[in-house]
TrEMBL record:
UniProt lineage: Bacteria, Thermotogati, Deinococcota, Deinococci, Deinococcales
CDD domains associated with the record: PBP2_TMBP
Organism: Deinococcus marmoris
Family: Belongs to the bacterial solute-binding protein 1 family.
Entry protein name: Maltose/maltodextrin ABC transporter, substrate binding periplasmic protein MalE
Domain of life: Bacteria
Stretch forming the signal peptide: 1-22
UniProt keyword terms in alphabetical order: Signal, Transport
InterPro entries, alphabetized: Bact_solute-bd_prot1 (IPR050490), SBP (IPR006059)
Keyword Transport: yes
UniProt-listed Pfam families: SBP_bac_1 (PF01547)
Entry-linked PROSITE patterns: PROKAR_LIPOPROTEIN (PS51257)
Length: 419
């Protein structure tokens, strides 16, 4: 009996000693789709492994709102959040507030991620964040309805999409009055910048600002792309599309009320979940072309450690854990979050859960970056001006040609003497 008691207290002592240096890390997680749950699960696994605790901070749903809130925290040098989830367009904007992970994370480990994403996370030689998951715009479609209306392949051009969406919509509306052809991110925010960049590039209209920093948006193809998108509103897309973010679009598609949807990969896992009305009826394809080939905007999220964190070593350890291969694999299988590690695109379990990760690999590897690199600290202003211009065209306030002309002037003012 005595021996047993001694053993119990020894175990307790060991447990206590391994907790001796235990700290609490606050991790800011996104909340789109399954983001929050999967973030909490990963954090809990790390906490269990290390004896530390993690407090999860729930960030707002829209990336613009997250940025505003994070900028407030960082400007105040607050230590309230140790690890931030950073959008791929933010390293340039926020680099001065983050710990340089170069040297703190072995180079071999950093090199396991896609080079392009590491490059986007590196500002003036400083590794601001580690890649967690990557994103690219995709076209989702209803395989059952394609068949019903006599189509055997996803639309290759925007014109084809419009024709197919109209036909399916007209047919389905007879029995379902709210059915619509095409949903996407039409609200005036960063998501619209992503969708509209895809339209522009696919029409040969460029990337707003080119890699050298030149403003290129005032061209006929960009104008045409905007006018084309405007023509969808109230024809193949509901009037309300100009208020939709990712989740509104997904809600409509997943409840069986749309033929086509533009969204990120996360929508796949939820669309295939048990309570989805379209489970087993979803196809995924590259977005259509406007004559210049299909284009997908590069998105994605990264984890960075705040300079104001009081527990930087533990915070870095959490970042390494969450961006590691095991976590990325779990997240890919459970949530269709695209790994940032090329090796995982050969993983059979991941490919089984997300067949398009393999068949559309080039969509992910050739996704088009928003001009956050060349426009540096001014990217957010550039994006807001662009989304605002597109929004005006979609609302019928102006036409593409006038909008891109005015946008060029506005961007030149934002640029001033340089980005
Ligand atoms: C997704 C992308 C992100 C983008 C955002 C726009 O979260 O990963 O890069 O900025 O959508 O809504």
């Amino acid at each position: 009996m005595k021996k047993a008691i001694a053993l119990v207290s020894l175990t307790a002592a060991i447990a206590a000693s391994s907790q001796a240096g235990a700290v609490q890390i606050t991790l800011a997680c996104g909340t789109v789709g399954q983001e929050l749950q999967l973030c909490k699960d990963g954090a809990a696994r790390w906490a269990k492994k290390t004896g530390n605790t993690v407090k999860v901070f729930e960030s707002p749903n829209l990336t613009n709102d997250r940025l505003g809130l994070y900028q407030q925290q960082l400007a105040a040098k607050s230590d309230a959040i140790d690890v931030y989830q950073l959008d791929i367009i933010w390293p340039g904007l926020l680099s001065q507030h983050f710990v340089d992970l170069k040297g703190k994370i072995p180079a071999a480990e950093v090199n396991e991620h896609f080079k392009g994403i590491i490059a986007a996370d590196t500002v003036d030689g400083k590794l601001v964040a580690m890649p967690w998951f990557t994103d690219a715009g995709l076209l989702y479609y209803r395989t059952d309805l394609m068949k019903k209306y006599g189509y055997n392949a996803a639309p290759k051009t925007w014109a084809e999409l419009a024709t197919m969406a109209k036909k399916i919509q007209d047919g389905e509306k007879k029995t379902s009055s709210t059915f619509t052809g095409f949903v996407f991110q039409g609200k005036n925010y960063e998501g619209l910048t992503c969708d509209a960049l895809e339209w522009l590039v696919s029409f040969g209209g460029g990337t707003i600002v080119d890699d050298s920093g030149k403003i290129t948006v005032n061209n006929a193809n960009a104008a045409k792309a905007m006018d084309t998108a405007a023509s969808w509103v109230k024809t193949i897309s509901p009037a309300g599309v100009t208020t939709y973010g990712e989740e509104e679009a997904r809600g409509i598609f997943q409840s069986g009320n749309a033929a086509f949807m533009r969204n990120w990969p996360y929508a796949w896992a939820l669309g295939q979940s048990a309570d989805s009305k379209v489970k087993g009826k979803i196809g995924v394809a590259p977005l259509p072309s406007g004559g210049n080939g299909a284009a997908a905007t590069l998105g994605g999220w990264n984890l960075g450690v705040s300079m104001y964190s009081k527990n930087q070593a533990a915070a870095i350890d959490l970042v390494r854990y969450l961006t590691g291969a095991d976590e990325q694999k779990l997240r890919a299988i459970e949530g269709a979050y695209n790994p940032t590690r090329p090796a995982l695109y050969k993983d059979q379990a991941i490919l089984k859960a997300n067949p398009f990760f393999g068949s559309l690999l080039d969509v992910f590897t050739s996704a088009v970056a928003r001009p956050s690199g060349p426009t540096k600290l001014k990217y957010n202003q550039v994006s807001q001006a662009f989304a605002g211009a597109v929004s005006d065209v979609m609302a019928g306030k102006t036409k593409g040609a006038a909008a891109v002309k005015k946008l060029e002037t506005d961007l030149a003012r934002i640029k001033g003497r340089g980005w």
